[in-house]
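ARCHIVE CARD
Drawer: 12
Card no.: 0347
Subject: one protein chain, sequence and derived structure
Cross-reference: see card 0346
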Amino acid sequence: MFHSASYFIRHRSAAGAALICIALCTAMPVQAQVVATYDFEDGTADGWASFNGATAPVSTIAAAFTGTHSLLTSTNATGASSGPSIQLTSLIPGATYQITGQVMLTSGEAATNANFTVLRSDLGCSGGTCFDTVGAFQAPVSATGWGQIGGTYTLSTTATSLVLYAQLVGPATTQSFYLDDVVITEIAGPPGGPQDNSGIATNFEDGALDGWTSRAGSTLTNSTADAHSGTHSLLTSSRTAAFDGPQISVNNKMYNGSEYSISVWVKLGPTATQADTLRVSIQTELAGTTSFNTVVNNTAVPLNTWVHLTIPNYSMALAYDPGQAFLYVESSSGTQDFYIDDFQLTFVPPIQIQTNIPSIFQTLSGFFPVGAEVDASDLSGPHAQLLTKHFDSIVSGNDMKWSSTEATEGVFKFTAADAQVKFAQSNNMLIRGHNLVWSTGAQVPAWVFLESDGVTPLSAANTADVALLTQRIQNHIMTEVQHFGSAVYVWDVVNEPLDPNQSDCLNHGPFYQILGENYIAIALRAARQFAPAGTQLFINDFSTTDPNRLSCLIRVIERLRKQHVPLDGIGHEMHNHIDNPSAFAVFDTIETLHWVFPNLHQQVTEMDVSVYLSSDNTSNYGANGGTVPAAILAQQGWLYENYFKALKNLKGKVDAVTFWGFGDDDTWLDSFPITRLDMPLPFDIGLQAKPAYWGIVDPTQLPGFGLSFALTSQTGSKNGRVWKITASNPSSGTAFATQISGLSLEQVRGRPCRPQISAPKGGFPVALGDVAAAGTANAQFKIDFSRCSEDAEFTLKMPWSSAIYETGNLVVTHLRD
């Protein structure tokens, strides 16, 4: 496969600046010097060898860019990632190189693209290996002339070996090409000193331009006509082009390999007549080559409105010559005036996971394995470190689904999933398979439901179509489960088949429309036939705590059992919300299924807890740069504590618990049901433990843990006695939203009477609010004991709650008026 530049940038960044600490912008400039050239004029391959099945490269006089010789090779049969290669042995860690070469296809070959790639062995890479594209772009090449490939390449400081190879991009068959005049030039040395991570902040309140300059002749004016905050802003007028706008030098402020938060507020100027689109970009120059890259994407800016252009984590992946780096604001088209204000460039420290906190899976090892959903970005850097510390099982989020493994009929690709399986096996992790047949047709290629012509939809009325879809299901399942073999111990064979709104309780998706409910049996029987003995076969579905859905699930299982369809277990997705379902509902669902089907395995398969109410499809805590309130995160932590208390009480009835992700920096809920900030997982955006984690591992660390109540005084006359109830919070975190739910007196001695209790204004519940760490709060209740005898005694019962899910009951006996 071709490894794109974005793959390299993401994984280099994921390894973290703490690991590679590339700071080329402050490097001492060096005189560009050629460190290697390959022109093949001596009639040999100059040490170049075959890479990934390409033919052995040979020096030839059939063509040459300069001189009389070049290197001739042919790609492998699929054309993927193959060509001539050379070991790079003398490059300097942290230095930046220009690597270029000339490529021409042999006569008759169809035009395509080409590039250089470096196969890098590095502890910071997934499985110890990264594929780094050299330069930012693929180059077009043909048989009619030479095309230059390559670009700049910064060498990781932790690499153990490097293999440079040239490849064609796109062909699915063998193609031959020439390579000539490969030149490797060092253009910047390793970092020469510590980074300046102080950032930049400008608000123009001093009346000056604060370091901003015009890009192409526009006029910059410190203005008091409008401002996002304060009284000043910067107005850009008389623009000559869309790219003409204010720019600020980030020389020695942004460094290759580091991450930054970038924020600026913009508003269209007084002469603007229509809405516009603005963005933030960066310009750099290295060795005579100028590059332009988008930092904050095109953002709609209405008239008369300040709009926030921001990116919280921009990975700087650009080296530059001293003084040659500028951030700037531009429009996508047009030259309307605009203001900017409150600009901030902030260094984001590299993520370092907490190594001194308990492991989730080790803490729960006496109950069940604990897994996490993963993708390619989780297999290296701090994500991989966090994953292996806290989880002993994985499930692929998307890379085992039909659209990923068989996008074209009969052409199977398992590269991404194989990497995840290899990672899991090397770290002694279990592997769940997800999923083989998705009932709704989601992430199933369109061809699955079309006849062989690729146009005509399959029909249930056509027996040949029924047979064709049946065969496709069987073939897909056979190929996939046999590919992964015993590495996968359980498969979600059929995903989300339920629909309580249908009389037969089944989702009437595209599989059902052609095969009826028999598609479930076809899939499960195929999985049993082709999967290794002992592989568990599951149905996986959501909202199983809903009584109607649970009833449907039971009905469907009973029908399958009557047909002797193999089924080993049920997966409960558990995409929960801050208000639903309750921990009791989770417990009751699993307990009910165990009682009805005692031999059926059960797992929680996709757990997360949205910080939004189940009925809320509009709120966004992250709007305008906000974040989820600490009170909500505490509430979520206590809810996780309730859930895992229930799950631990189901020991022996729950086989495993798997989270759908593990860090809030990568969750599907950031884009569902709308685009917004959600924080549903145990670790936050910076991969640090949050209350959700502590609720799972050690509830004594939750904010407000140990909150207690006491009757601290009884004053006043008998007909107006005042009792003061005091809440004490011994923890180091706030006890949020603390309240007294009710108060009652149960008489245990004396002539029967009924004291009259008056709650504070507003009645029950009585809100005490947030009780600070090591703080107290109280409420007073007036009680009329005038109708009670002197020997009357009572028991006080007072239920209370904090953060909604931390609950208790104050009980005080032998009380007298």
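Annotation on reverse: Confidence is low (pLDDT under 50) at residues 1-30. DSSP finds 13 helices and 41 strands in the chain.
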